[in-house]
Design brief:
6-stranded mixed beta sheet, 11 strands, Phos_Acetyltrans/Butyryltrans, EC 2.3.1.8
């Protein structure tokens, strides 16, 4: 585990562990994630799914479920519904995806009558860390919103800013990415970037410093920014990287992971509780950092 991710876990340990509904943990990795997070003091798991199957998997992989609560739910749909209900009833404060399909969980989350909707849009943030990086980077949204419109991008940015504060990183420098740093009517993402910066000027987005459009090199490299004659509080120093759409974000974070040897962790924001939405291929370290992020986000929400 890289340095910045490790610091997030250490920071989260000092907070009291919230209850977490672990939804449909019918794979060993899902059960292990809840148990290891519990050992680190990151959360207290409530496993929601087919009790007999969960116990058999735990026994097969020598995972000790003694003294941990398991709530019976026979199907993925039932587990998702019951997990969301635990959040609504304030019996759980975090939600973790187990081995069910993501769309089943999210359908339960966004249900207008029984879900976890708030006035915010549901968005996702990756926290990337790599070898000898001076700073971690947040990438958003590379997992939930496929082709976000202007209003959705406003929520994407605000949710990421709020998380940046929750993790103790202070006021973030936010780069709204495109292919170029000049507004070009033929590239819609440059127009939206310019509009989002003006929205921040008008306090429609708060507690962050925005600049855009910016190409990636101008956002993170002081040398590249200087060569283009760009000198703002964000250029070359960005901490939150806002991608134009899911395709760009997905390619970006996977390039960092598989070519740049970076590690990723991430959570879903904008619902009534932080959602730990790791993939089945995620490492245990990634899952634990995601749990720590969710815990810090939850505690921050209690006072803000």
């Amino acid at each position: 585990m890289y340095n910045h991710h490790q610091k997030i876990i250490e920071k989260a340990k000092v907070k009291s562990p919230p209850y977490c509904a672990v939804c449909y943990p019918c794979e060993a990795t899902a059960i292990e994630s809840g148990l290891e997070a519990f050992k680190l003091g990151l959360l207290t798991p409530i496993f929601v799914g087919p009790k007999k199957q969960i116990k058999l998997i735990a026994e097969q992989y020598r995972l000790d479920l003694k003294n941990h609560q398991i709530i019976e739910a026979s199907s993925e749909f039932e587990a998702a519904t019951h997990s969301v209900k635990l959040i609504r009833e304030q019996k759980a404060h975090l939600l973790m995806k187990g081995s069910l399909h993501t769309d089943i969980l999210l359908k339960a989350v966004i249900n207008k009558e029984t879900g976890l909707r708030t006035g915010k849009r549901i968005t996702h943030v990756f926290l990337m860390d790599g070898p000898n990086w001076n700073t971690p980077y947040m990438i958003t949204d590379a997992a939930i919103n496929i082709a976000p419109d202007l209003v959705t991008k406003m929520h994407i940015i605000q949710n990421a800013i709020d998380l940046h504060h929750a993790l103790g990183y202070g006021v973030p420098k936010v780069a709204i990415l495109s292919a170029v740093e000049m507004v070009n009517p033929d590239i819609s993402s440059t127009l939206e970037a310019a509009a989002l910066c003006k929205m921040a000027d008008r306090k429609q987005i708060v507690n962050g410093i925005l600049d855009g459009p910016l190409a990636l090199d101008n956002a993170i490299s002081p040398e590249a920014a200087a060569m283009k004659g760009l000198d703002t509080p964000v250029t070359g120093k960005a901490q939150i990287l806002v991608v134009p759409n899911l395709e760009a974000g997905n390619i970006f974070f996977k390039s960092l992971s598989f070519i740049g040897q970076a590690d990723s962790a991430g959570i879903v924001l904008g619902a009534k509780a932080p959602i730990i939405l790791t993939s089945r291929a995620s490492s245990l370290d990634s899952r634990l950092v995601s749990c720590a992020m969710a815990k810090l986000s939850y505690h921050h929400s209690l006072t803000h």
